[in-house]
Specification:
Elements (H helix, E strand, L loop, with lengths): L2 H24 L6 H4 L11 E6 L14 H13 L3 E4 L9 H11 L5 E3 L11 H7 L5 E3 L5 E5 L7 H9 L9 E5 L14 H14 L2 E6 L5 E6 L2 E6 L17 E4 L4 E7 L5 E7 L7 E5 L4 E6 L11 E9 L2 E9 L3 E10 L2 E6 L4 E6 L8 E3 L5 E5 L19 E10 L12 E10 L5 H25 L1
Parallel strand pairs: 1-2, 2-3, 5-6, 6-7, 7-9
Antiparallel strand pairs: 1-11, 4-5, 8-9, 8-10, 11-12, 13-14, 14-17, 15-16, 16-19, 17-18, 18-21, 19-20, 22-23
């Protein structure tokens, strides 16, 4: 073969490689799921619905696709539309970049997604990519009044790293109660637990500091719960991974359910109490249906079963937009019930009617607010009095770079008043620290890649002709 075809072939292969790299880079999210899903949670609500999932990895750990049962759980979670979604780890088969991207896309659209790392999420040694696309390896959230949710990384390589995490759990805690989230369980003892060194270090710290009310764990593929030393320990590992059939005999004082797919619905109260229900998932688990009757009315039908195959209660949060405001109705839907929710909108006055017995309504302006306009039902009717939003025009200078950077974004939102109508409340400013993997858009990156290819081809043709 002559030199000219070899030169041309080499340039074409080089150009193809550049295009592949550019396409892969363009597919990376600009912000992590943790950052993108962050939504202000008002601190004056009566209770807060949360969904907890764990161990949704595929049986074939090399598969890019997640199990069908997991998508069923995600669909029901999106119907529930909780204020937060907590994950206890093993959300991918091996934690490859492709698998992480699939997980990211599956959970987009949900608010406040807080996932922990599992051992399978690290098998491909892509922890940096996980932290870039999904969430930090450990972090805490103080957004729900009365509570701190602390997500730990039980997969850290060195015991000193585990101790360093544990030592920060109580920093600036105040009078909040703690919910700990990590992958490998401590209690109940299910023959698949965290090693004694790390478990004992955490247990000793808990005994010294107290405040822990609830611990959410995964790793063991089933459902288990136990109250020990006034702490509720839950293992939820049934969102899609192959289910376990052991131990045959439950540990003392523990509840264990084998071989049933499930997830947890959790209600957190500002007074630092909580209730929860393990919900059966998949075929034969019943259904949660939200049906739009007309432009202003919805019907919610709940025939879901709990993990014990008994009728289950389900929290549901309905959302509509009224003159730029996000208006929510948060309801507990009883077992085998049909709930009707009707909106009557008259300008900035919203009246919501429902036959539910445990519910409330609230509204926030665009961008959210720390204090919502709250409506508690009286004779099945909750009223919200909103105010007209003021619009302003701002001019901002933006700089685009393709290098890794850390940016600080300042978001200003109006905090609504529940008593004064027609008069804007005092603005509040929230500063969020965000790590940005790329500032250039996908379109820009693809355009650059295409330009490189075209340039390479032109250069190849020029070289061939010259020779």
């Amino acid at each position: 073969m002559s030199r000219k075809p070899l030169d041309l072939l080499s340039l074409i292969l080089f150009a193809s490689l550049i295009l592949s790299l550019g396409t892969a880079y363009a597919q990376q999210p600009a912000h992590s799921l943790y950052e993108e899903s962050r939504t202000i949670i008002p601190d004056n609500l009566p209770w807060y619905p949360v969904v907890v999932i764990g161990d949704n990895r595929p049986t074939n750990v090399n598969s890019i696709q997640l199990p069908p049962i997991f998508y069923m759980v995600v669909d029901e979670t999106k119907e529930i539309y909780p204020v937060a979604v907590i994950g206890t780890g093993d959300h991918t088969g091996m934690g490859t970049q492709e698998q992480i991207n699939v997980l990211y896309n599956a959970l987009r659209g949900l608010q406040n997604v807080w996932l922990a790392l599992g051992n399978h999420d690290l098998d491909a040694h892509q922890e940096k990519y996980w932290t870039r696309v999904i969430a930090p390896d450990h972090y805490y959230i103080d957004d729900i009044p009365g509570w701190r949710v602390y997500v730990l990384n039980s997969e850290c390589r060195l015991s000193m790293q585990w101790k360093a995490q544990v030592n920060t759990i109580w920093n600036n805690l105040g009078n909040r109660s703690l919910i700990l989230v990590f992958h490998r369980p401590i209690y109940p003892r299910v023959e698949h637990n965290l090693d004694p060194e790390r478990a004992n270090y955490l247990l000793n710290k808990i005994a010294q500091h107290d405040h822990v009310k609830l611990v959410l764990q995964g790793h063991w593929h089933g459902y288990a719960s136990e109250v020990k030393n006034r702490i509720t320990w839950i293992i939820t590992g049934g969102a899609g991974a192959p289910l376990y059939d052991y131990p045959k005999t439950p540990p003392d004082n523990a509840t264990i359910v084998l071989e049933r797919n499930h997830y947890i619905v959790l209600i957190l109260y500002p007074n630092q109490t909580f209730t929860y229900e393990p919900i059966l998932a998949g075929d034969g688990s019943g259904a949660l249906k939200i049906i739009k009757i007309n432009a202003t009315a919805y019907k919610i039908v709940n025939t879901k079963l709990d993990i014990f195959k008994k009728p289950a209660w389900i929290p549901v949060r309905l959302h509509v937009n009224v003159s730029g405001w996000d208006v929510y109705a948060s309801l507990i839907v009883p077992p085998n019930a049909t709930i009707i929710v009707n909106y009557e909108i008259n300008g900035y006055d919203v009246k919501i009617t429902s036959n539910a017995t445990n519910w409330y309504a609230y509204a926030t302006p665009p961008g959210g607010a720390n204090n919502a306009v709250l409506g508690k039902p009286v004779d099945n009717v909750a009223e919200l009095k909103l105010y007209k939003l003021q619009t302003t025009t701002t001019t901002a200078t933006t700089t685009t770079t393709t290098m890794f950077a850390t940016t600080t974004t300042t978001t200003t939102s109006q905090a609504p008043s529940t008593t004064t109508i027609g008069q804007p409340a005092t603005p509040t400013t929230t500063t969020i620290q965000q790590t940005t993997t790329r500032q250039g858009s996908q379109t820009e990156i693809l355009a650059i890649s295409a330009a490189i290819i075209i340039g390479a081809i032109i250069a190849a043709i020029f070289i061939v002709k010259k020779k």
